[in-house]
Please model this.
Amino acid sequence: MSSKVEIGSPILEVLPPFICPNLREKIVAEEVDINELEKQAKKKKAKDSISNPCIQLVKALPLYPLTITWSPDHLHFEIKDNVIEQKLWVWNTSYRTIYIHCCGLCDETAYLGATWNCCPQTRFNLAPGLKGELFIRATPKEEAPVPYAFAKLQLAAAHKRDHVTGFFAVPVMVTYSNFVSYTGEGG
Model:
């Protein structure tokens, strides 16, 4: 049995004929004015030369961006002989629940004159509009080789538990009163 349909078969006679009406008027070559064609060509050239497309890079925006706010805006430690502890409040200003983890200080010069601890050391969950507390403790060393240090307290934020999608930095200024200047080998 063949799958071809013959031209005179009853199957083809049942189907309606394919009609494609052309509603435009038929144009004869003698009726076309050459001046009109030249005007259209000049208009197209003028538009192409004037329009210079401005290319803008489109940045991808996330559906739910991570945004947090903290108070105070920056931390200032004046380290003398005692242990100093400061509190940092963090608010979730995004639309979804986020996890925040305190990663510690980013700059190594702050570690020269003191040891630093951040509590809680594990991540904590913040619902939209709620605040969390972070405690930063500085224990001074006997001597500090630098008079002051500028560092950043790094906070990692994520919508899910395992995938960190944003880092935030809280400025920290540290002044050491136990600074001892280095005089060199001779003394």
About this structure: The mean pLDDT is 82. The first strand starts at residue 68 and ends at 71.
